[in-house]
Design brief:
Chain B: Keywords: ATP-binding, Nucleotide-binding, Sugar transport, Transport. The complex is a heterodimer of chains A (342) and B (246). Chain A has 342 residues and is mainly alpha-helical. Chain A is built from 16 helices and two strands. Helices cover 73% and strands 1% of the residues of chain A. Chain A has a two-stranded antiparallel ribbon with strand order 1-2. Chain B has a domain at 89-148. Chain B is globular, with a radius of gyration of 18 Å. Classes of the chains: A mainly alpha (342), B alpha/beta (246).
């Protein structure tokens, strides 16, 4: 039977539901929800306000960085330097404040340091054409070393006259009074609020801005993006700056949460951040990823970690569980893609 | 007056001379077949016209006015559109997103502008309808057939009021029925006064749609003749070098 072009064209490929079911993010969200449900039944402690408060605060740092990492991964790159960048930003912020400057100056100095890291990364990758893996691997080493040089490898715990302000920012919470009728008088930890705001901004930028469209285009086919006039170099530079800035924001918040900074801060964190992004649906080959996925990926890792502790399983098993989750999440995605192409 | 004029265009990459004093003029609504063996310089020439490469020497004139392109966007702004050999499509984006890649439609005020999905879907649907192609603007290019992908790449050239369309092997990797579709489209472009440069290896395509054929061999123009005054045999001879020049 033949149908007219108009009919053929107006047909939708996916319904809303089947479109949703086809997404990795959706299944990771289901896994997240199921884990929470099971844990609420299996443990008396899990669903308490105090535990959930901790879970939310803990994954916020990785989540914030995963947003930037997702942007990088969408373009087909990788940023291995985020853990070191976080440390550098934290050291710069804490030492600036320790030298007697205000909290604002401290934060600006820390974020400026992270932006500088991003500019070097992005400049070498976008304009010199070096592989992102190599450049950011180098920066992983350089940024941490600079943090050691600046701090003389000492713990920084003197946060100057504005110490309370930064500790309230990173370690405090908001909306306690507002949420107390719902049994959450502790409110929402500030890092989680920052994550929420940044996730909304990132989600909006990915879907509704030309910048977002272009990062997906670069990840899908960089050559095509160049040929059609997408400013590929500038956009690539921008994603590494965004990634570094996210690490800087997480670093500043950690200063406030911990109240002191050591040069080990954020060691190995890049792998957690990449894991969170990948579990959340970012494709390391480029061209796919969502802000919601980055958040849910980080949340899932933290919930698993928390669950293992509460269930009394030795913490050494954490790596195994998280590692299996990375592989399974990507495997499910592969199987789905194979089915689709058949 | 010629709409596109190339005067003594040369290009070398280091010691390699890719193009050697090429001069071609295109009239409005003229379809010129650009033929030559692999490495003859066809793609290099197209990339120069499209603003991907700077010529090492020579001059490009559009409507009599000398132009210089530093980026593909500038060529586009001067009414030159290209359909690339690999079509330059992003598999992970929708058909509409690919059509509008690099010149997305946005709405909003001042610096706060967001992508206007509806406008782009609507316009893309119109373009596909014009092309009589069963291509859905919201489908991902990854899921499309060769002909649909071709339609997406060609729809791009129709977005603006292009005066010159360069097509690099548009019929190389598609089915017989789709080849006929593409050739029909070229005729439609011609009817609207668009000048088309068709790079092709396929003699039947060139002889069915082109007004003129230009043959390159090792970076030099060896023939520039009306289709009526030549034959596939002669062109083959020119391409291989069996016939030196015509």
């Amino acid at each position: 039977m033949s149908i007219s072009i108009d009919e053929a064209v107006s047909k939708q490929t996916h319904g809303t539901l089947s479109g949703l079911m086809a997404r990795q993010t959706f299944w990771v969200f289901v896994a997240f929800a199921v884990t929470i449900l099971l844990m609420s039944l299996a443990s008396d402690v899990f669903a308490t306000e105090k535990n959930l408060y901790n879970v939310f605060r803990n994954f916020a740092f990785v989540g914030i960085m995963a947003l930037g990492m997702t942007a990088v991964i969408i373009t087909g790159g990788i940023d291995l330097s985020v853990g070191s960048t976080l440390c550098l930003a934290a050291i710069v912020t804490s030492m600036t404040m320790g030298a007697g400057y205000s909290v604002e100056v401290g934060i600006i100095a820390g974020l400026a340091a992270s932006i500088a890291v991003g500019l070097v990364n992005g400049g070498l990758i976008a304009y010199v054409g070096m592989p992102s893996f190599v450049v950011t691997l180098g920066m992983l080493s350089v940024a941490r070393s600079l943090a050691q040089v600046i701090s003389n490898n000492q713990i920084v715990y003197q946060l100057g006259p504005d110490a309370n302000a930064i500790m309230a920012l990173g370690g405090g919470s908001s909306f306690g009074a507002l949420l107390s009728p719902f049994g959450a008088s502790g409110g929402i930890p500030n890092p989680a609020l920052v994550l929420l705001v940044l996730a909304l901004v990132a989600g909006f930028a990915f879907r509704w801005t030309r910048w977002g469209r272009h990062i997906f285009a670069i990840g899908g086919n960089e050559n095509a993006a160049t040929l059609t006039g997408v400013p590929v170099k500038a956009i690539k530079l921008s994603v590494y700056v965004v990634s570094a800035l996210m690490a800087g924001i997480a670093g500043v918040l950690e200063v406030g949460w911990l109240g002191s900074v050591t040069v080990n801060l954020g060691t190995g964190m890049e792998l957690q951040v990449i894991a969170a992004s990948v579990i959340g649906g970012a494709n390391l080959a480029g061209g796919a990823g969502t802000a919601f996925g980055a958040v849910i990926g980080s949340a899932l890792i933290e919930v698993i970690r928390n669950s293992l502790i509460l269930l009394g399983i030795p913490t050494f098993w954490q790596g195994t569980f998280v590692g299996c989750f990375i592989v399974v999440a990507v495997l499910v995605d592969r199987i789905r893609a194979m089915r689709q192409s058949n | 007056m010629a709409i596109l004029e190339l005067n003594q265009i040369s290009k070398h990459f280091g010691a390699i001379q890719a193009l050697n004093g090429i001069s071609i003029a295109l009239e409005e609504g003229e379809v010129v077949g650009l033929m030559g063996d692999n490495g003859a310089g066809k793609s290099t020439l197209v990339k120069i016209i499209a603003g991907n490469f700077h010529p090492s020497g020579g001059e490009i004139r559009i409507g009599g006015r000398p132009v210089q392109f530093n980026r593909p966007v500038e060529a586009r702004e001067n009414g030159i559109e290209v359909v690339y050999q690999d079509l330059a499509l992003c598999d992970n984006l929708t058909a509409a997103a690919n059509v509008f890649l690099g010149r997305e439609v946005r709405k909003g005020f001042g610096p706060l502008k967001i992508l206007d999905y509806n406008a782009m879907y609507r316009r893309a649907a119109e373009l596909f309808k014009e092309l009589k192609s069963e291509t859905r603007p919201r489908d991902l290019v990854r899921q499309m057939s060769g002909g649909q992908r071709q339609a997406v790449a060609i729809a791009r050239t129709r977005l603006s009021d292009a005066k010159i369309v360069l097509m690099d092997e548009p019929t190389a990797a598609i089915s017989v029925r789709q080849v006929a579709e593409v050739l029909n489209l070229i005729r439609r472009l011609k009817d609207q006064g668009v000048a088309v440069v068709l790079i092709s290896h396929r003699m039947p395509d060139v002889f069915s749609v082109c007004d003129r054929v230009v043959v390159l061999r090792r970076g030099t123009k060896v023939a520039d003749k009306p289709i009526a005054a030549t034959s596939p045999e002669e062109v083959t001879g020119l391409i291989t070098g069996a016939i030196q020049e015509a």
